[in-house]
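Changelog note: in this version the structure field was regenerated for every chain. One regenerated record is shown below for reference.
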Amino acid sequence: MPLVTPLSADHDLDTKKLAEFFNETLGFCPNSVLTMQRRPAISKAFINLNKAVMANEGRVTSALKRMIAWVSSNSTGCRYCQAHAIRAAERYGAEQEQLDNIWEYRTHPAFSEAERVALDFSLQASQVPNGVDEEIKKRLYEHWDEGEIVEMLGVISLFGYLNRWNDSMGTSIEGGAVESGNQYLGKHGWEKGKHI
């Protein structure tokens, strides 16, 4: 059972309008947003931040941003966000070989060195204590500029918020997210856990 029950998508019309963004990214409005709308200022601010962080500004593609989100969520153990991130990566055109081998991003040939360092950055930034060090910085600057690094850390930070929100709430996971979680992550033990 979730800590707080999600409200109807029609509860706050401003949130509902903003949440149309998620129909593109996930195919549905996430229950996390439906819970946040108990305080509409939070749901609206979150959606606007999500849209800004996930906007395409250059070479950090929408698919890579979602894979960064997956690594961050996997690091923190949030099963809800793992499934949402892999689903969104699929919907935004991540290569099938990358989706099938996301667990092996460090060694699998489907990932470029630039993608590997972005995903390593996500892993190190999501750990406690934080693992971002001079080596990660050096590797990042070999492939990415400062604006792109800001975009990546925006994704990592946004999912830090979401990981804590959804794991603490025990947010009920939607069918589409379960489907993607089972398809791409199930072979490595993913299950919905408390997100029933």
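Spot check on this record: Residues 76 and 126 are 7 Å apart (CA to CA). The chain has one domain: 14-188.
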